[in-house]
Amino acid sequence: MSIRIQKQGIKKNSVQSSTKKWLLAILSGIILTLFGVFVSHSDVRATDKIVTFVTEEYQAVGDTFVYHCLLTQQFTNYGGKDGFISDFQIMPLGLSPLPNVQLIQLNKGRISFLTKKEIETEFILKFTLTKDPKFKGFYYDEMGAQVGWVEFGIQLSLTPFH
Fold first, then answer.
1. 20 to 30 Å CA-CA from 151: which of 50, 90, 97, 114?
2. What is the CA angle 55-61-64, rounded to 5?
3. Alpha-carbon distance 93 to 25, whole Å?
């Protein structure tokens, strides 16, 4: 006498199974896309608004004023790709005169992922002296995006203020 045991299996619902597979595929695609964007771009930003004015020199020649400055600002890269500061531009605020800007030095060294780096900028401004001229300097990364700024001005007593 032989006993035959028959297993009864539970059939999987094919609709549930295919829905899970599609959901998993869509979710994987979104995660891979976000990871690709993170790895392929740098995200350099000014760490804080604290700017150190290392050197400031003034000279008035007639009605022309010459301002020589060396400043540092800290930047951090939050993107997966190395980045760097590629440009620094100065614009007048309010009715301040448009200056003649000579950029002497801009530290363009690479900034790696989550690395803080002090960027040194040295420049000379030549402009017609008016009452308390104010200026704003803008930092740009390698993609041309503005990543930081510094505001400064000169009082008629020929002393700097920030």
1. 114
2. 85
3. 52
